[in-house]
Amino acid sequence: MVEKFFKLNEKGSNVKTELIAGLTTFLAMAYILGVNPAVLADAGMDKASVFLATAISAGVASIIMGLVANYPVALASGMGVNALFAYTICGQMGFSWAAALSAVFISGVIFIIISVTGVRKAIINAIPVQLKLAIGAGIGFFIAFVGLKNAGIIVASPSTFVTIGNLTDPTVLLAIVGLLITIALVIKNVPAAVFVGMIITAVIGIILGFMGMAGMPTLPEHFISFDFELQAFGACFSGISELFANPFQAFVVIFSFLFVDFFDTAGTLVAIGNRIGLINDKGELENAEQALLADAVGTVFGAVLGTSTVTSFVESSSGVGVGGRTGLTACTSGVCFLLAVFLSPLILSTVTNAVTAPALIVVGIMMAQQLKGIDWDDMIFAAAGFVTVIMMILMYSISNGIACGFIVYTIAMIAAGKAKEVHPTVWALMIIFVLYFATPYIM
């Protein structure tokens, strides 16, 4: 029954592979269970409540994605958009966290509407195939950069912006050893190489921790927690009046959430779709409506529970990297997130940045291979593709990278005398992107 429902044979997969892929994706995403509560706490929210909301919404949304869309894509409260929530909407603009949750809820409802009507699918399918490849490769570089940063291999520098980290730091060395082990396993075609690399890295870290090495993954005294209080449940409804006290600001806030979530999700789905063959001969993403609807429902559900925008996670590519091809991968990740409600002490103490960073970097290498599909002899696609990739990394934003790529693509097509070949949707998106970048200055 499981094989028929998820079409495992048709997708060239099996139950064992999907379960391992789902667990791999979960481990690559598990950091969000610690990071999201810390970020939203800066907006005045209770950490324990946010942790619970993050885990439950991620679990439910991932299972919906798996059952409805049959995509190997897991969802959770997105990084970047949670910073927008805490530091811009609540910090700079002065909204309460309840009003910010209201904006997240409304943006999710709008997403459901445009997903059901097919608007979202039409926009994604309007993205030129060459740009789809650039987006996929760009996300590969992006998550590799995230991995390098999380590991401490790359750090901030006041003079050169980024520089090499402290290679004598034990946690940095653990990440480097894990990276080399994972690369070796992939080259030797070891089954589930990325997942195995994470396990080996964690075990090495735990052993070093027992030997007295600081900062290593550790085993907690208590593996299970039963703290189930959701203090922010339903607060998204009480904050609506505050949100719309200033209609223009309300529009800006809702649009900001819409923009970031839409194109982060679009980039993730396109990248993974390219990787597992979900892009058809016409350059269209198969089952896009179902995937986008699942993503939108996740946002609404998460807002009601009390967390920032729930979105498709690019870390899902780590599960795809070990063979995940169907919704069973997403469902497995979802179940893991629900179990995390009970196992939070174990997860937060053993799945450290040093453990997940090698997986992100190696998967980034795999995704970057899509660059070979771009026609680098055509300056239109070379310029648009290059800008998409470089801006995604340097702006530390998937959505901003996509926006810059679209703008350059449109201008390049005009310069080449091919303005009539630009899809009307692409014209509309370019205008939206320009307005998005201009909004902070208009305000």
Tell me what portion of residues adopts beta-strand conformation: under 5%
Radius of gyration: 21 Å
* Arrangement of strands in the largest sheet: 1-4
User: What is the makeup of the main sheet?
Assistant: 2 strands, antiparallel
Structural class, from helix and strand content? mainly alpha
What is the CA–CA distance across the termini?
Answer: 55 Å
Number of domains: 2
Number of helices: 20
The amount of helix comes to 55-70%
- Residue-averaged pLDDT: 87
Approximate shape: globular
Give a brief outline of the structure.
The protein is mostly helical. Helix content is 69%, strand content 3%. A two-stranded antiparallel sheet has the order 1-4. A two-stranded antiparallel ribbon has the order 2-3.
Structure, described:
With 443 residues, this protein is mainly alpha-helical. Helices cover 69% and strands 3% of the residues. The protein is built from 20 helices and four strands. The longest helix has 30 residues, at 247-276. GO terms for molecular function: purine nucleobase transmembrane transporter activity. This is NCS2 family permease.
Detail the topology: elements first, then pairings:
Layout: H1 2-6, H2 15-29, H3 32-41, H4 47-69, E1 75-77, H5 81-92, H6 97-116, H7 119-125, H8 129-151, E2 154-157, E3 161-164, H9 170-187, H10 193-210, H11 235-238, H12 240-243, H13 247-276, H14 288-305, E4 310-312, H15 316-321, H16 327-350, H17 353-368, H18 379-394, H19 398-415, H20 424-442
Antiparallel strand pairs: 1-4, 2-3
Helix pairs in contact: 2-16, 3-4, 3-5, 4-14, 4-16, 5-13, 6-13, 6-14, 8-13, 8-17, 8-18, 8-19, 9-10, 9-17, 10-17, 13-19, 18-19, 19-20
